[in-house]
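Work package 3, deliverable 3.1, input record:
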Amino acid sequence: AQRVTQPEKLLSVFKGAPVELKCNYSYSGSPELFWYVQYSRQRLQLLLRHISRESIKGFTADLNKGETSFHLKKPFAQEEDSAMYYCALGGSSNTGKLIFGQGTTLQVKP
Amino acid sequence: DTEVTQTPKHLVMGMTNKKSLKCEQHMGHRAMYWYKQKAKKPPELMFVYSYEKLSINESVPSRFSPECPNSSLLNLHLHALQPEDSALYLCASSHGDNYGYTFGSGTRLTVV
């Protein structure tokens, strides 16, 4: 079965602390993983995609096929990072479907 | 133009009404999608259009009827909805799987 698991509903950290948002997936084909962010009252935005291996707003994520994980990391959290983060799974076997995890709310305290 | 535009932003409709949601993109994306999002929940896929043809229908009730008049437009026709259909309806588009989706800001629908 194709599934995305984000085990934490809420992650609360202080400004300047490191952040790791966990994402695990289950997929039989070659996965395509994404991180989306939804700031309060704003549209869902693409943050990262594993295939590009880029860093956006200081966030990085590495696809670990052995552990079937795609954790999102940032070394020093900022208050403006507070938002809902969704891990999403696509892939050639999905015929265009993007499956979302349940989401993790990141709260960065001053 | 790098956006997906959805209209209206808000819609209140009665259970006997007929209304339509509209979505437009001019990025040349070949795939377009309708998602439904309840508060504090992830988006749930409803329909996928690929090259203007319906390719996925996630067992959505027939009171929701999608339409893709051309490669830039996607509509969602609504009829005889229930209060539990109240949600944020999101449209998205993409080039293909590797690129991720571009989402619109959504239509917040309330069924009374």
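Chain B is about 0% helix and 55% strand.
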